[in-house]
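Budget justification, computational time. The allocation requested in the original proposal was used primarily to generate structure tokens for proteins on the priority list. As evidence of use, we reproduce two of the resulting records. The first is shown immediately below.
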Amino acid sequence: MWKFCICVAVLASASAFAEDSIHIRPQAGFGNLDGDNYRHAGLRLLLNAGGEKKYGLELSRLYTAKADYIAAGIVLEQKKFGWFNLSIGTIGYFGQGGTTPNLPGLIANLGWEPETSSAFKPFVTLRNDVIFAAGKTQSGSAISAGLTVDF
């Protein structure tokens, strides 16, 4: 019985990768994080989860006047109505520098991603970062733009 389950799992995984299911999504943007201007740049590596749903990893760098972070974590995305992009994820914000702590957080995006037949798809989103610091929660919003490349 367990051999059958392993075979089904392997076939299901192979068929998921047979579609154009790998998406690389570089992005960059600017906004306001807890009263300070900040910039971010990074990318997402996404796989299809069925239909218009995707899951994957994000790796970004956030630059502020007070602290810099490497943001890494798991994200879930969905596209509605053929153009409306929604995503949410749990992110670790790893402080760069001796006094900047590592902090947990959340990320959410709402935005525009047009339906195209090309392997390259532009997108623009409103990015929301929430960083859970000791005694204070930091939050920020930014405009983020990029290009999805499908493989």
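The second record produced under the same allocation is shown here.
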Amino acid sequence: MQREEHFVLLLDSPASSAQRASVPVPVGLARWRARGGERSQVEFEARLFERDLRVQQVETVDACAAELVWREWRAGQGRTLRARAEDGVLELVEWGRRDVVRERLSAPAPVWFALHLVEAARVGDLPRSLECFDPLGRRVERLEVRANSLTPTLQLLRLNDASGACAGEYQLEGEALSEFRWQAGELRARAIERDEYERLERDAAAARENR
């Protein structure tokens, strides 16, 4: 099974008055690919137009181990982090600094990666709390999972960290991801069709060439 979903990244601009709705501003694009089977792989790639920032996250999970590769590209610099969870240990290797950083973290409980967490939520297969690896903070954090049915086919999945702050919010329509945000904030992703994604991608490329 293989799935591909496309998103526009929107920045919700504050309204100028209480009577006028805020206007979302397109600031980037994202793509989500998933392939199931005995060795499942989920890939997420996002690009922010103005910051010239591109992020890619690839997760691979099988019966023996789970591995994540996180890459960032921006003007003049980049970063790559590989995390591998196996036999109760999380091994980290990071490139992009002056020296290669290596670290081993104890992970006695099953450690989730964010993309596979959402894949499990699509079929309602999540515990109420779990340990999830954060590639930005390079740490494992406990998250509380809250799922609310908005309509018979629409579900809102919210992840809260230990302080109660939002660590992610995902809106699922059936098994399709229709909208999400990483944290409580103004940046969110909304599902779009492939042709709209390709049009916005062409427009962004033309804008970069005309700078």
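A brief technical remark on that second record: Residues 16-20 have pLDDT under 50 and may be disordered.
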